[in-house]
Amino acid sequence: MSVAPALEHNLLAAETPLLAAIERMDSVRQKLLLIVDDQTRLVGTVSDGDIRRGLMRRLPMEAPVSEVMNRDPVALRAGASEAQALRRLSERGVSLAPVLDPQGRIIGLYPAGLGVQPSRDNLVVIMAGGRGARLAPLTQHCPKPMLKVSGRPLLETIIERLKAQGFSRFRLAVNYLAEVIEDHFGDGSAMDVDIRYLRETEPRGTAGALSLLDEPAGAPLLVMNGDVMTRLNFSELLDFHAEHAALATLCVREQRFQAPHGVVEADGPRLTSLREKPTFQWLANAGIYCLDPSVLGRIPTAGQYDMPELLAALAAEGKMVGAYPIHEYWLDIGRPPDFELAQSDFDAVFDPA
């Protein structure tokens, strides 16, 4: 049985803060953190799912990673056969496992060779029709998704990264300067993907263009805004959506803001509370969604219709609408400072697709 080489970046101490663990998870290629003692003996493991469950519990970022770790992980002994390893992973429904020496010290991660992504037949719809008014004058002659980040259009980067994760069927909703997008991508054959267009005759909002889909969809759809730069694992989003039997799932990102002043609350002339520079936190809509095909019939065929309207209607009816927390890198490029940040972040955050 082959094992991975040195895995220093996957190793963490149990007292490591959750925020540091999230940053480490985002930086490693093999998405399993190995929690060890000072002798490199295995204490537990932390998967992407473990972190998301911690975020859903609203654990503070200062909490030790031991709060989310799996204390009874799958582990393999050095010398085990391929058949034994595959059986152990299959029994527990995992794809990675640490390999231990006789003293319980980590010597590798099985399997050593990753990178071949299974193909996904899910349709990916990217909303690329907005005017990008807040980024003017950059968008005067160029649609926002075609603005170049690190030398190539943002939309091209989005498609390439999805392709690297096994997706190949793309539908681009276009309106403003649609010809720029269509001339660049054509039918997608140059990128070895299938691209077709949902051509809006009027602005349709963040969900209205879905009414233009004219092909049957047998699997959940991915829908995302064309101005989002992220390292999200989209297959794990689809798995979360299926696991929770959701009709719709939206990705959410925790945001924090520390007030620069003391915050006062009063009831008429009477002071009721005073907090010195408190930190406010909330979950922001990340502009990435997973939809069951059955919800498409709810979308009107004309006029503006935004995704929050669809999700709110489903939730009001008691339907399952999932909230999937993103801890990976994510940036909504809506304003000039965001565009500047994308330029400075890109090479440090992204490997070539």
Quick recap:
The chain folds into two domains: about 10-110, CBS-domain, CATH 3.10.580; about 120-350, Spore Coat Polysaccharide Biosynthesis Protein SpsA, Chain A. The chain is about 25% helix and about 30% strand. The chain contains eight helices and 19 strands.
Task: Sum up the structure in keywords.
alpha/beta, 24% helix, Spore Coat Polysaccharide Biosynthesis Protein SpsA, Chain A, 353 residues, 8 helices, CBS-domain, 7-stranded mixed sheet
Major sheet characteristics: 7 strands, mixed
The helicity comes to: 10-25%
- Could you give the count of β-strands? 19
CATH architecture of the largest domain: Alpha-Beta Complex
Q: Give the strand content.
A: 25-35%
Radius of gyration over alpha carbons?
23 Å
Adjacency order of strands in the biggest sheet: 11-10-7-12-17-14-18
CATH superfamily of the largest domain: Spore Coat Polysaccharide Biosynthesis Protein SpsA, Chain A
Measured distance between first and last alpha carbons: 29 Å
Mean pLDDT: 90
Low-confidence stretches: none
The CATH class assignment of the largest domain is Alpha Beta
Shape: globular
CATH topology of the largest domain: Spore Coat Polysaccharide Biosynthesis Protein SpsA, Chain A
Sequence of secondary-structure elements: EHEEHEHEEEEEHEHEEEHEEEEHEEH
> Which structural class do you get from the secondary structure elements?
alpha/beta
